[in-house]
Design a protein that fits this description.
By secondary structure, this protein is an alpha+beta fold. It contains 6 helices and 21 strands. An 8-stranded antiparallel sheet has the order 13-19-18-17-16-15-14-21. Strand 4 and strand 5 form a beta hairpin. The structure holds FE2/S2 (inorganic) cluster (FES) and fe (ii) ion. FE2/S2 (inorganic) cluster binds next to loops.
Length: 375
């Protein structure tokens, strides 16, 4: 293998992909008749819930003179700008009232829009669809429709059954979306970053073989009996024979990591997202659903504790990494441990190319691949 393949020098860009749903805020932080600030892809947003609890998201800048709308008033239906009192429908952004107009002035109020974004509540988060930037026409752009509903966590019971639990964890990372994502899919940092006496030490490092396959817009670590590094795995062994436990981990553009673990009739399912806030700041949200440990008084707390510990170790690492990245060092991706990171960059490039040319996306993987590394 040529040296250039072995040590491929690559500096992650920080391009943030539009045309996708992103998690904006945890639903328990968004209250009725109140306005909340959020930011996605460097777009300032004001997020809220109307009188009956339906969420909405508007661009947090009045189309009149740019006043942040979150400073205004909200009556459960219309948002009123705090500068000159223009009012906008919270859901579609259409202007309803310009108080300064006299009866004989015929400004077409209904043609003015505060930018609004498709918005959905799903598994504990308010999701906002960020469309591709349209032609400039600020103030008169009607709201876009999302081409598909927001992503959901896969669950293996009726939501009405009450037989599963849902919890989330969130953490801010001072690095670009690309470093956030490749950090999330990186298998080699485990023994060094995630050490704990009750978990594993760096001496537990050993060779691993994993099978990957292409899936639409991403790749899958195929169903297998997980190695002992998987977070809820040690606890799952209490429920089922080790060889009946299977797990799949999918990565799908722009930022989704799905992990599903099944052990007999018990399951654990998570959807982790890395959300670009600005070009050098992202946020990791882990949302998990499970039907295990329900009888165990501290099961959920224990699971959350383990995850919180991991996420905090990652956050601390990325905080330190950001220090090093300030000076724009050359970076490298090596085989096989960084191959998923390479696929991510290739998928992103293929997606952008397909968009540019209007042709179908050419998947960078032509079939199943086996990777080996020590971790
Ligand atoms: S800036 Fe909002 S009403 Fe004038
Ligand atoms: Fe990690």
């Amino acid at each position: 293998m040529p040296e250039s393949d072995l040590l491929q020098r690559q500096a992650p860009g920080s391009l943030m992909l539009t045309g996708f749903w992103y998690r904006a805020l945890a639903t328990d932080r968004v209250h009725r008749n109140r306005l909340h600030k959020a930011m996605l892809l460097e777009i300032p947003l004001v997020v809220g819930r109307d009188r009956v609890g339906h969420p909405f998201a508007l661009r947090d800048a009045c189309p009149h003179r740019g006043m942040p709308l979150h400073c205004g008033r909200f009556d459960g239906e219309n948002v009123e700008c705090s500068y000159h009192g223009w009012q906008f429908d919270a859901h579609n952004g259409q202007c309803q009232l310009i108080p300064s107009l006299t009866a004989d002035q015929n400004v077409k109020v209904e043609r003015i829009y505060a930018g609004s974004y498709p918005c959905e509540e799903q598994d504990g988060f308010i999701w906002v669809y960020i469309p591709d930037p349209g032609p400039p026409g600020a103030g008169f752009a009607k709201p876009e429709e999302a081409p598909e509903p927001a992503p959901q966590i896969e669950k293996f019971e009726e939501s009405s059954s009450g037989k599963y639990k849902l919890a989330y964890l969130t953490s801010n990372m001072p690095v670009s979306i690309d470093h956030g994502i490749i950090g999330l899919m990186d298998p080699a940092h485990g023994p060094f970053v995630h050490q704990a006496w009750w978990w594993r030490s760096r001496h537990s490092i050993h060779e691993k073989t994993k099978n990957f396959e292409p899936i639409p817009n991403g790749f899958r670590m195929s169903a297998h009996t997980p190695s002992s590094n998987s977070a809820p795995y040690k606890l799952l062994r209490l429920y089922a024979a080790a060889d009946s436990i299977t797990t799949t981990i999918d990565f799908v553009l722009p930022n989704l990591r799905r992990e599903i673990i099944r052990a007999g009739r018990y399951w654990f399912s998570s959807l982790t997202t890395v959300t670009p806030i600005t070009r050098n700041h992202c946020r990791i949200d882990v949302v998990a659903a499970w039907n295990i440990f329900r009888w165990m008084p501290f099961g959920a707390e224990l699971l959350k504790f383990v995850f919180a510990k991991f996420v905090e170790q990652d956050r601390r690492t990325m905080e330190l990494q950001a220090e090093g990245l300030q000076h724009d060092p050359h970076l490298m991706l090596i085989d096989d441990a960084d191959r998923p990171a390479k696929w991510y960059f290739q998928l992103k490039a293929a997606h952008l190319e397909a968009k540019r040319t209007g042709s179908e996306m050419k998947h960078p993987m032509s079939g199943p691949v086996t990777l080996k590394w020590r971790s």
